[in-house]
Write a structure and sequence with these properties.
Order of helices and strands: EHEHEHEHEHHEHHEH
Largest sheet: 7 strands, mixed
Helix content: 40-55%
CATH architecture: Alpha-Beta Complex
Number of helices: 9
Strand order of the largest sheet: 3-2-1-4-6-5-7
CATH superfamily: Spore Coat Polysaccharide Biosynthesis Protein SpsA, Chain A
CATH topology: Spore Coat Polysaccharide Biosynthesis Protein SpsA, Chain A
Shape: globular
Length: about 240
C-alpha cells in the first residue's frame, strides 16, 4: 500500500515471453495485486507467468486476442469488483519503470486527479529512444487528442503508463471503450465526458529489447479519423446535455 491505498497493477501481455518475467520481478512489494492479462498469446507467455512464485499474481487468459484495450478493460473489471483504490497499467515488455508508480499515485491520493498519465515528452531524456517518425506521430496525435478530449494540458496520449482511481473507474462504461491501440485516446475522451480530472506527470520511457507492435503509418491515419468522430460526439454530449 501507499498511504493505506489498495493498489493493483494491470499488465496486458501479448507474446511477451522474452520480457514478461523481468516485468513481474520488478514490481515493488507495496503493490497489493498484480493482474496480468494474457491476450491470446501464441508463445510461452502464460507458461512463464504460471512459473512466477508470487501470491499477488493473478493470470487472466483471453483465448482470442482482444487488443491492448480489451486486455486492460478485463483487468479494470477485476479491479472494480475487488475495489482497489488505484489501478496502474504497466506494459508486459518491461518498458515502464515501476519506480515511478508513486509519482502516478500521488495526484490521486492528494485529490488532485482522477486519472494520471505518464508524459515522455517533457524533456529530452524521455523521448531520446524514439525514432523521429514515432516522435512526430506522437506529437500529431497529442494535438488532435487535445482537441477531441478538451484536455489541452495533456501530452503524450499514446503513453499507456497510467493510474486511475476507483471513483473514475466506477463512473466509466467500460464496455463502451475502444479495445485497440486507440484505447488510450478514447478513455481520455470518455473521462472528459464525465468531467473527471486528468493530469500528466513527467516519466521517461525505458527503452530496451521491446519491439513496438504498432504500425504507425496506418495507426496515425485511423486514429485521427476516430478522434474526429469522437470530438463531434463529445460536443454533442456537452451541448445537448446527454451522456452516452
Amino acid at each position: 500500500m501507499i498511504e493505506n491505498r489498495k493498489i493493483a497493477t494491470i499488465i496486458p501481455a501479448f507474446n511477451e515471453e522474452k520480457l514478461v518475467n523481468d516485468t513481474l520481478q520488478g514490481i515493488p512489494e507495496y503493490i497489493d495485486k498484480i493482474i496480468i492479462v494474457d491476450d491470446g498469446s501464441t508463445d510461452r507467455t502464460p507458461h512463464i507467468v504460471k512459473m512466477v512464485k508470487d501470491p499477488r499474481v493473478k493470470l487472466v487468459r483471453h483465448q482470442k486476442n482482444k487488443g491492448v484495450g480489451g486486455a486492460i478493460v478485463s483487468g479494470y473489471k477485476i479491479c472494480l469488483k475487488l475495489k482497489y483504490d488505484i489501478s496502474i497499467i504497466l506494459a508486459g515488455d518491461n518498458q515502464m519503470d515501476p519506480k515511478y508508480i508513486p509519482n502516478l499515485c500521488r495526484p490521486i491520493i492528494n485529490g488532485e486527479a482522477d486519472y494520471v498519465k505518464g508524459n515522455r515528452l517533457t524533456g529530452s531524456d524521455g523521448w531520446k529512444g524514439m525514432t523521429k517518425f514515432r516522435l512526430f506521430g506522437n506529437l500529431v496525435l497529442s494535438y488532435i487528442t487535445k482537441i477531441a478530449s478538451g484536455y489541452w494540458h495533456i501530452m503524450d496520449p499514446q503513453n499507456g503508463y497510467t493510474a486511475i482511481s476507483y471513483k473514475a473507474l466506477s463512473l466509466l462504461n467500460l464496455n463502451n471503450i475502444s479495445r485497440g491501440y486507440v484505447f488510450e485516446n478514447d478513455i481520455l475522451i470518455k473521462l472528459s465526458m464525465k468531467k473527471l480530472k486528468v493530469v500528466n506527470v513527467s516519466i521517461p520511457a525505458k527503452y530496451g529489447e521491446e519491439e513496438s507492435k504498432i504500425k504507425y503509418n496506418t495507426f496515425i491515419i485511423k486514429t485521427s479519423r476516430f478522434l474526429l468522430k469522437s470530438y463531434i460526439l463529445r460536443l454533442n454530449t456537452k451541448y445537448s446535455g446527454r451522456l452516452r
